[in-house]
DNA sequence: AACAAGTCCAACCGCATCAGA
DNA sequence: ATCTGATGCGGTTGGACTTGT
């Protein structure tokens, strides 16, 4: 209740609905000048008639430099599935391990593909490609107007291996044997997806080790990609 | 060609938590 | 210790778009 007071103060005045390119530019300019954060002052400083909450969401989910658009890769899907099996609906936490992807995107992916029965049909996959293509075109136009000075956090590339690090979970590189992977943690509706991805050869391994005596609440992952 | 149904995703909402006064 | 505003998160919705009939 209390938490909403600030947001609702000028609720009648806030614009809602889809963002226009002009609004996007105003927000980009604001962030460029003031940095991320202090969203509640965006309206005053930039002239945007959007709530701070709306501005933050727009920035985080759409305007933020480094965002990937388009279809999730099999690797990314695998990470989502693994982490969801481990963490549940902690979309923002899962998103931290997928640089350039947003919690909203991951949430949408999960709901679309696994919240209901069955796996996506081939037609659905075709549709996804079309949508992804549309987004890529839009994003490329968007990116051209922006000065990308940001560095993706917590990810390094090291001899064809992505090392995931989390400030919260202290995830670090490790060497876990394939036998250590426990497929039973996967939901049943995910199993068919696993078969598909394994067959196409793009997925080369993603192993978990929860036998961590020292830090029982932590987990370690090894992710190998074929670039 | 027209309509219905399904899919996707941007954006909103409400609540929880954090931080500063 | 309490209050208040700011921020973050997860759930939900609306509408554009695609596909099927």
Helical proportion, percent range: 40-55%
* Low-pLDDT residue spans: 1-12, 117-189, 195-227
| Rg, nearest Å | 20 Å
The H-and-E topology, N to C, reads as HHHHHHHHEEHEE
Oligomer: single chain
- Average of per-residue pLDDT values: 61
Beta content: 5-15%
Number of separate structural domains:
2
Describe this structure in words.
The structure is a single chain. The protein has 227 residues and is α+β, with helices and mostly antiparallel strands. The chain folds into two domains: 2-63, Orthogonal Bundle (Arc Repressor Mutant, subunit A); 74-224, no CATH class. It is built from nine helices and four strands; from the N terminus they run ααααααααββαββ. The protein has helices at residues 5-8, 21-34, 42-46, 52-63, 74-87, 91-95, 103-113, 122-144, 188-200, and strands at 155-157, 161-164, 206-209, 220-224. It has a four-stranded antiparallel beta sheet, with helices on one face. It is elongated, with a radius of gyration of 20 Å. The N and C termini lie far apart (49 Å). Mean pLDDT is 61; it is low at 1-12, 117-189 and 195-227. The protein binds a DNA duplex (21 and 21 nucleotides) through residues 1-7, 9, 16-19, 37-40, 52-54, 56-58, 60-62, 89-92, 103-105, 107-109, 111-112, 120, 123-124, 126-128, 130-131, 134-135. It is found in: Nucleus.
Keywords for this structure?
227 residues; Arc Repressor Mutant, subunit A; 2 domains; elongated; disordered N terminus; disordered C terminus; DNA-binding; sequence-specific DNA binding
């Amino acid at each position: 209740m209390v938490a909403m007071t600030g947001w609702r103060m000028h609720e009648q005045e806030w614009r809602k609905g889809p963002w226009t390119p002009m609004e996007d530019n105003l927000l980009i300019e604001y962030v460029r000048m003031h940095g991320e954060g202090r969203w509640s002052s965006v309206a005053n400083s930039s002239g945007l008639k959007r709530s701070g909450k709306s501005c933050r969401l727009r920035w985080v989910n759409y305007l933020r430099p480094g965002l990937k658009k388009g279809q999730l890769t099999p690797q990314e899907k695998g990470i989502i599935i693994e982490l969801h099996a481990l963490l549940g609906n902690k979309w923002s936490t899962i998103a931290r391990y997928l640089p350039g992807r947003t919690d909203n995107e991951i949430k949408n992916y999960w709901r679309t593909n696994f919240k209901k029965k069955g796996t996506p049909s081939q037609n659905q996959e075709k549709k996804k490609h079309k949508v992804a293509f549309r987004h890529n075109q839009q994003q490329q136009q968007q990116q051209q107007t922006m000065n990308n000075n940001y560095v993706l956090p917590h990810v390094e590339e090291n001899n064809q291996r992505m090392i995931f690090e989390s400030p919260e979970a202290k995830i670090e590189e490790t060497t876990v044997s394939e036998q250590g992977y426990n497929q039973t943690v996967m939901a049943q509706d995910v199993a068919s997806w696993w078969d598909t991805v394994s067959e196409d050869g793009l997925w080369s391994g993603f192993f978990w080790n929860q036998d961590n005596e020292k830090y029982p609440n932590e987990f370690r992952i090894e992710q190998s990609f074929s670039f």
